């Protein structure tokens, strides 16, 4: 990599890790909110706190994470990525400061909305920056994915460890600090955002049915409502519509399986809370301020959840390599087919014992993130360079916007049905994505 590549990759790795640190720390707090709050008080009405209602609260923030990606994708084609990434980091810091000061679940909901709106601009900004500014694009995407998965795994782990000695509100305040520091760094970063496009003389790339890269606002993005409509129509009259359906299924599965996973794990054999006094020597307990009565117990499900997500680092790497070695359409079909199988066997295998659960959990964490580089590369193949920000905006509208409904689906099913019904539903979603991959391979 040259100096410009390293500057860009360093920034997007930092920002990507931050985004997913906060995103996947939220489910750690969900189990606390379920026990701490009894009602959601809207003034004119009150609602009991259940997995269904809390799922709706969390989904509101996660939905903005995706819905804001579309306007973010439009803006990035005009103002550039660095400014949006800086604003994203600053907004996420502010949201977790607000979360740490929240006196009620209503303010928690507001903080999650601020987080979702702030984080939403990252993926179109970061991915457009990688695709247009980094000459060694494949390597850049690989490092970018690895950093995201480190945030996905380490974020919940750090939150779980801090919860051993701090209240959840204090943990939220502590977590806000790294994003604030990262925002200061991002605001001063310097690089050429279009170096790779300039070096190629204007990216040719395969735009698929979306049209030739040079014939669809290849250098200026969209600058009016009319151009937004025409460019969007150009995207969705071709095979990109199938790609969009795939990423939508990916988001539903992702959010559906992860939002309440710590709580689901807590109900399995072998996940009883463990007092700290059973694990640490008395001298260390006194330093931590933990009394002999045990203090806050260690929650094994939080650490299993974090470990499952950490396995995704390897999944991201393998998925990135697969994009260079196999047809991305067949890669999508195979990986989503395996996710469907894992959803069907997860609970039966988990109830056998801890070792089988470790095996099936590792496979789930691995495969859940193999699909991400595959669909990111597919978007790049089926869209023109000039509206790449818009294309990734639509992509993450599907992944995190529509996909956020997976949290509502999961919460509602767990309130009125059983975990078995939830995992069967997730299997059906993954199977649909696998079928779409096969159709895309034959029509794209």
From TrEMBL:
Keywords: Cell membrane, Membrane, Transmembrane, Transmembrane helix, Transport. One of its GO terms (molecular function) is transmembrane transporter activity. It is a multi-pass membrane protein. The chain crosses the membrane at residues 12-34, 54-76, 83-102, 108-129, 141-162, 168-186, 235-254, 302-318, 330-347, 354-375, 395-414, 421-440. GO terms for cellular component: plasma membrane. Its main location: membrane. PANTHER family: MULTIDRUG RESISTANCE PROTEIN MDTH, RESISTANCE PROTEIN MDTM, PUTATIVE-RELATED-RELATED. This is Sugar phosphate permease.
